[in-house]
Amino acid sequence: MGGEFKDTVVRELQEDSAFREEYLKDLLIEQDLPMLALGLRDLVEALGGIGKLAKETGLNRQNLYRALSGKVRPDFPTLLKIINFSGFDLSIQKKSKGKPSGHTLALAN
């Protein structure tokens, strides 16, 4: 992400909870795990940074840097803690009949 664009995204993530929710939904639908990790890193940055995430979740700071680097796949428990840190819960919804194949995720805050 370009510097100015990234700064705008991070600012919107900080200030607009509806934007944050849609951003997180879009990330979770993404099937490219490195892209997911990098997007989550921007979200975490907007919400106070990796240090704050580590402190509030009990996750190891170095492991978080690695998980959100885009070079390794973040594990599911880490993803859940980041989602919870963001103020949301993850749920699953049954697909509607006739809907194209894809993932359906719901976030609740």
In short:
With 109 residues, this protein is mainly α.
Main traits of this protein?
two-stranded antiparallel sheet, 109 residues, mainly alpha, 6 helices
How does this structure look, described?
By secondary structure, the protein is mostly helical. It has one domain. It contains 6 helices and 2 strands; from the N terminus they run ααααααββ. The chain has helices at 3-15, 17-29, 33-46, 50-57, 61-67, 76-85, and strands at 89-92, 105-108. Strands 1-2 form a two-stranded antiparallel sheet. Helix 1 (3-15) packs across helix 2, helix 1 (3-15) packs across helix 3 (33-46) and helix 2 packs antiparallel against helix 3. The two termini are 27 Å apart. The mean pLDDT is 87.
Alpha-beta classification: mainly alpha
Strand order of the largest sheet: 1-2
- In angstroms, what separates the terminal alpha carbons? 27 Å
What kind of sheet is the major sheet? 2 strands, antiparallel
What ranges have pLDDT less than 50 throughout 5 or more consecutive residues?
none
Mean pLDDT: 87
Name the shape in a single word. globular
Number of strands: 2
Percent range for β-strand residues? 5-15%
H/E series = HHHHHHEE
**How many whole angstroms does the radius of gyration measure?**
14 Å
Structurally, the number of domains stands at 1
Helix content: 55-70%
| Tally of alpha and pi helices | 6
